[in-house]
Design brief:
mainly alpha
Length: about 290
């Protein structure tokens, strides 16, 4: 697999169960739930392994995929690649079926047949990869739990920046994860996992705001502002988080509950981080490390 553009945290294929196919339009489908996507990708992967490994066979597979799968796209101008499927020995994560390491490809790189071409995999890295501190990315990798949750969360650069910045502000220190092997407190992982839960199943996301995130720099599909004037109230202190989650309130009670859910996640993470920073071992780590600021 190719390495990252700017640091040592690779976000595309993390391990046997954690991966991201969001830039391939993975979630830009009619049913982006984990259950719905798993069924769709499993069927697609089975058909792909029966396809001849030649130009005609692979192009025919793409055409058949467009014909037999639901065509509704929440973002009409965001390409959904027909060659994203389930990869790995147990097919436990999303990935590129055209990759040279893919089953049946015998080391041949077929990615040039994709919509963006083979160079996209080598040269393109999302804003999260390029702009977020390594310590935040490593924590999301540890807390995601599976490919579906990871891909939905890791591409949310603005949301993650707002969340972790507030966590570290409240804790009074930066998250100390010096490398991939550094232990991460279980309670901190749980707190971040709870925040990922909110992103995946945010109860205040209206049906006209897709679950998928269009995260490209052209900002073609930006999430709308939260309309506080309908509540006859000013902006929330969590406005940046609420906007990035895609939020619409039906009344003041919704706002109160939403803010409480966010406060709980932030406070739990900050408490875990503060406890970690106060330990003798962690104090020594913090004194000897120089972590870049976001």
């Amino acid at each position: 697999m190719n390495g990252p553009a700017t640091d040592d945290v690779y976000l595309c294929q993390v391990d046997e169960t954690i991966s991201c196919g969001a830039c391939c339009g993975l979630y830009n489908v009619a049913d982006p739930t984990r259950e719905g996507l798993t069924v769709l990708l499993a069927r697609r992967t089975e058909r792909f392994h029966a396809a001849p490994r030649n130009l005609e066979g692979l192009l025919a597979f793409a055409g058949e995929t467009s014909r037999v799968e639901p065509g509704a796209r929440p973002y009409p101008e965001f390409h959904h690649c027909p060659y994203v499927g389930l990869v790995g020995d147990r097919r436990d994560r999303a990935g590129c079926l055209l990759h040279p390491l893919g089953a049946g490809n015998e080391g041949i790189d077929y990615r040039g047949l994709s919509y963006y071409g083979g160079m996209a995999c080598r040269d393109y890295f999302c804003l999260s990869c390029k702009t977020l501190p390594a310590r935040w990315k490593r924590l999301v990798c540890s807390a995601a739990g599976d490919w579906h949750r990871f891909g939905l969360m890791i591409t949310e650069a603005d949301l993650l920046r707002a969340f972790f910045s507030e966590v570290e502000r409240r804790a009074g220190c930066a998250i100390a994860i010096s490398n991939d092997d550094a232990p991460i407190p279980v309670d901190l992982v749980r707190a971040v996992s709870a925040f990922i839960d909110l992103r995946v199943d945010w109860p205040f996301r209206p049906t006209d705001i897709p679950v998928a995130n269009y995260f490209f720099e052209d900002r073609r599909y930006e999430r709308p502002p939260v309309w506080y004037h309908k509540l006859d109230a000013g902006p929330s202190g969590h406005d940046d988080l609420l906007r990035e989650l895609g939020t619409a309130f039906s009344g003041p009670a919704d706002r109160t509950r939403a803010e409480a859910l966010l406060d709980q996640c932030i406070e739990n993470a900050a408490t875990a981080l503060h406890r970690r920073a106060a330990s003798p071992m962690s104090t020594a780590i913090n004194q000897n490390r120089k972590e870049p600021t976001p």
